[in-house]
Amino acid sequence: MTRLTITLLATLVLATVTGAKAQVNEQDSLALVALYHSTGGRDWTNNTNWLRGPLDTWYGVTVTDGRVTRIELADNGLKNYTDIGPTDGTIPPEIGDLLQLQVLDLQANKLREAVPAELVNLTNLELLHLNDNYLEDLPDLSALGALTTLSVENNFLTFEDIEPQVGLSFTFTYAPQLPVPRPRDFPRTGFEGDSVALYIPVGGMHNQ
């Protein structure tokens, strides 16, 4: 009787531990849902199991001990869709809640606007690939002590975005960059021969 009781107890404990490992951290789940919606997940090239199956079966996602450790969605059609058609997607600030993330690979998509400042919360991040998008602002990532590789070439970044990262211990690829985009309020009408003044402020210390 005693032996049976001990066996049942051990089985129960093992089942509890196994269940705990299968349970993915809630803020990690919410961060991935935010990424899905802000980048038009339903129209990705591959969105296998996203928002349907267990989170550790979602395409491009690796889960370790209940936490998301890798997101690998390179060249996967990340953008967004509105009622009038496709638009460029954005990286949501919730990405900064993935505190155990080690790899973030979103290269070769159609992501625009700023890289969220919340990215500096990812102190376990080792590889960050954001190259070949249309990103316009990059926060200072010098506090990410685990970072070994940062790739941001072929975006709309300026010296203001690049200078804080130069000279740090990680491998940093930042050139070339796309031409600075035309201002949204740039006049679209006029007559041949008209003079137009175009002013585009670009930050940084080495733009001369």
Q: Specify the helix fraction band.
A: 10-25%
Radius of gyration: 22 Å
Number of domains: 1
By CATH reckoning, the class would read Alpha Beta
Give the strand order of the largest sheet, numbering strands 1, 2, ... along the chain: 1-2-5-7-9-10
**Beta strand count:** 10
What ranges have pLDDT less than 50 throughout 5 or more consecutive residues? 1-21
CATH superfamily: Ribonuclease Inhibitor
Helix-strand topology string: HHEEEEEEEEEHE
Assembly state (oligomeric): single chain
Shape: globular
Task: Give the DSSP E fraction (strand runs of 2 or more residues).
Answer: 15-25%
Describe this structure in words.
It is a single chain. By secondary structure, the chain is of the alpha/beta class. It has one domain (2-173): Leucine-rich repeat, LRR (right-handed beta-alpha superhelix). Helix content is 18%, strand content 17%. It has three helices and ten strands, in the order ααβββββββββαβ. It has helices spanning 2-22, 26-38, 159-162, and strands at 61-64, 67-72, 80-82, 85-87, 103-105, 112-114, 127-129, 134-137, 149-151, 171-173. The protein has a six-stranded mixed beta sheet, with no helix packed on it. Strands 3-4 form a two-stranded antiparallel ribbon. Strand 9 (149-151), helix 3 and strand 10 form a beta-alpha-beta unit. The longest helix has 21 residues, at 2-22. The termini are far apart. The relative contact order is 0.10. Mean pLDDT is 83; it is low at 1-21.
